[in-house]
Automatic annotation (TrEMBL):
Name of this protein: Uncharacterized protein
Sorted UniProt keywords: Signal
Endpoints of the signal sequence: 1-23
Keyword Signal carried by entry: yes
Length: 370
């Protein structure tokens, strides 16, 4: 599994060739960070050392079925490099909804909308699908159980996941590149009375012209998961480093327990149709903005070595023991992991790395957990 993922990762870099920016001395220097939900630690992960983190999880979003969302970024000191999570979106929720978002017909449309919300002049220059973030299933994946095909009416529902590269102009006029990774559930319904086969008896309206059937109507609906965004000057976007950052984010056990209970209450209050949509969302919810597995399940199974190694292979990480003896998961594409004296981490493929010569501080090379 790890060899297969490594091959996939190599293919990623071949598609989006770029020079490293977050890396230093053939490695990645990262510091732990926490995304808060009110006064609760919700997500833990890493950002490049020296970057500033802003935002977190928000509450009271009418366009999210469960009321919470995310609005978070981390930026370099000069602001030219950054990454973050783009909030989930909902569209096609009805005439009187507070979140009447412009409908999207495809994942490419969705990612383009998100890019231009961040970078107004963004233009897509490449796109590829990412089945790995939805459990490895081929995408787009249609849900036959949610489809309808009858005279005059049809409905399709499908899941899609992918990554797009954009070009845009920075605030200082510099040529920039940004990548957005995301997934969404789409639906398209068509109502065509003329194709229904129903006929009106002319004898019911003697002497009156027969009314023409109303035109066909198309209804689009759907919802997206959190998207992961990264940007840098052209030629300096390091997707290997950003992928390692994205995969580092996991929910805390406390927040997972809270959200599971919250969702159970909301689902219990919804009508059957909403409950079915919630079940679909639960089954198809996968790694997006950095979450690929349930933190609660991971916390309960952390002592199970076989489970841990399986999850490591899926997520592309290796579990190390830090200087205090606690487990920490770091990207496995770097052979060596160090914890520096200031508590930050440095990932490198340089077997001769010396923390004193690079950072002028002591450090300890970490060992993989048994």
């Amino acid at each position: 599994m790890k060899h297969l993922l490594a091959a996939l990762f190599t293919a990623v870099l071949a598609v989006f060739a770029a020079q490293p920016v977050m890396a230093q001395e053939s490695g990645l220097h990262v510091t732990p960070t926490v995304l808060m939900h009110s006064d609760m630690a919700a997500l833990r992960g890493f950002i490049p050392s020296g970057w500033r983190s802003e935002g977190g999880l928000t509450w009271g979003d009418p366009c999210n079925a469960y009321g919470y969302n995310v609005n978070w970024t981390a930026r370099s000191p000069d602001g030219r490099y950054g990454l973050g999570f783009f909030p989930s979106l909902g569209w096609g929720r009805g005439e009187f909804s507070n979140c009447r978002q412009t409908p999207f017909t495809s994942l490419e449309d969705l990612l383009t909308y998100e890019a231009q919300a961040i970078w107004p002049d963004a233009r897509m220059i490449d796109f590829r699908r990412r089945p790995d973030i939805v459990g490895g299933q081929a995408v787009p994946a249609e849900f036959p159980g949610l489809g309808i095909s009858a005279p005059g009416i049809s409905m399709q529902s499908w899941l899609d996941a992918g990554e797009a590269m954009f070009a845009f102009t920075g605030s200082d006029g510099q040529d920039m590149r940004g990548a957005i990774l995301g997934s969404a559930l789409f639906s398209r319904s068509v109502l065509d009375p003329a194709a229904s086969g129903l006929m009106i008896d002319p004898s019911l309206f003697p002497g009156l012209p027969m009314p023409a059937p109303p035109p066909a109507q198309t209804f689009l609906g759907g919802s997206s998961e959190w998207s992961f965004v990264v940007w840098a000057p052209a030629g300096h976007l390091d997707l290997a480093a950003s992928e390692a950052i994205r995969k580092s984010f996991l929910p805390t056990g406390e927040w997972s327990d809270f959200i599971l209970q919250h969702r159970a209450v909301i689902d219990g209050q919804n009508i059957q149709g909403a409950a079915e949509r919630a079940e679909i969302r639960r089954r198809t919810n996968a790694e997006i903005a950095g979450i690929i597995m349930d933190g609660y399940n991971e916390r309960m199974a952390i002592q199970d070595r076989m489970h841990r190694e399986t999850m490591e292979a899926v997520r592309g990480v290796e579990t190390y023991l830090d200087t205090s003896g606690r487990p920490v998961q770091l990207d496995y594409n770097y052979r060596n992991a160090w914890q520096l004296q200031d508590g930050s981490y440095f990932l490198t493929n340089d077997d001769n790395f010396n923390p004193n010569s690079v950072f002028n501080m002591d450090g300890r090379q970490l060992q993989a957990a048994p």
